Amino acid sequence: MKSLIKKHINTNRTPVSDASNDLVSEVAEILNGKIIKSRSGSEVLTWIIPEYFKCHKAVLKRLNGDVIADFNKHPLYLWTNSINFKGRVSRSELESHIMTDKTMPDAVPYHYKQGFHIKSSNWGFSIPYNVYKNLNDEEYDVDIEVELNNDKDMFTGVAEAGSGGDTYIFAAHTCHPGQATDGLTNVALLVEIFKTLQKMDLKNTYKFIFGPEYYAAAAFLNQISGEELKKIKGGFFLDLIGGGLQPAFSTSFQGNTFVDKVVEHVFTHKVNDYEKRGYREIVGNDEMFYNGPYYNIPTVTLGEILPKGYHSNDDNYENINFESISQYYNIIMDVIKIFENNSVPILKYKGPLCLSRYNIFIDIRENRNAYRHIEALQILTDGKKSYFDLALDTGADFDFVLDFYNKLIEKKLVSIDKKD
Ligand SMILES: [Zn+2]
To answer: How far is the CA of 31 from the centre of ligand 1 (A)?
Structure first.
């Protein structure tokens, strides 16, 4: 995971770029996925795929040669999809071509707007406020040499694990030049998840969609059949994982679907301190496509609260918290465990089970909660409720419920509804 992040972190991953396409290609190769190609300038749903962008050089200098901003030092110095410009500009003319952020005075902020425009019309540099405030010279030299055209394709990757049952989708974006947790770390985490899933014997189907934000979701949805769409029961969009801040999730637009309940259950039982927010309230992103008009797939966002260096070069490799990435690995595998194991148990006995006879006795004085859960689980098992329903009804953790019923199945005291 670390090598994938290191290799791609400082590349100029604008929406349609060799850098984003390279990341998509590498992930598709690791997971044996396929690539959907969308031509820059073409229409996908109601969106137009942005221009292909490649920067050859971009330097802002004082007349004495001192370099103020250099794309080769960090891709964020140049605005996404900046147009070509070479020449000498006055201080006042330069003003409208500079982005800076006083709230993070040493950081290079991310100027992304033109990445969403059909045609770029401006050039510009992002610089730290502490550099900006000392721009007292009368004139500056600008040298920007880029390729900006509709001649190339944007890549969207789709990888799969399993082939039956219901389908759940997972998405993360490959764009955002020179940034770590806004996109890249989430892609790297899903690579690890799907490597694990592809080794498992699965009941359901899981799809991983990776490409530039918004446009990859549009490209994926644009080509799915009605039949495929019908099978998709829920989606997850991952963003900002790895900042080491408080874990958070945003509910789907519907707010109370099976995927919402499963995510909340896992957070309640496995995460000490977390934040639950409404639809698109951590940071709005691709879920607006998946969970948007017509498709309306209930999609939960998994992430963290916004970090201080959000959308700047402070979102870098050194600041990645790998522990929070592995915490999310466990959260997602716990969510998938529920999808994979949620069956409907049917009791094969009447009356309270003689627990000690079957070696599953729990002393109420030693573990009151577990004792009460076992009692309630047996009473509430009606041949209709699933393990997950029973976990919600009793307040027990799904793992506890699954473990209890597995013991009863082993002793032939419970059977599983084959329909499920
Ligand atoms: Zn972003």
So the answer is: 25
Q: Ligand 1: distance of its center to the CA of 302 in Å? A: 14
pLDDT digits (tens, 9 = 90+) for 343-389: 999 999 999 999 899 988 888 888 899 999 999 999 999 999 999 99
Task: Name the pTM for this structure.
Answer: 0.95
Phi, psi of 352 (to 5 degrees): -65, 135
- Compute the distance from residue 175 Cα to the ligand 1 centre, in Å: 9
176 CA from centroid of ligand 1 (Å) = 7
List, as own/partner pairs, every contact residues 130-138 make where C-beta atoms lie below 8 angstroms and the sequence separation is at least 24, other chains included: 130/105, 130/106, 131/68, 131/100, 132/98, 132/100, 135/68, 135/91, 135/94, 135/98, 136/91, 137/62, 137/63, 137/91, 138/90, 138/91
CA of 368 to the centre of ligand 1 (A): 47
From start to end of 40-166, where are the E strands?
43-44, 47-48, 52-62, 67-70, 85-90, 98-99, 125-126, 139-149, 153-161
Residue 57 Cα to ligand 1 middle (Å): 24
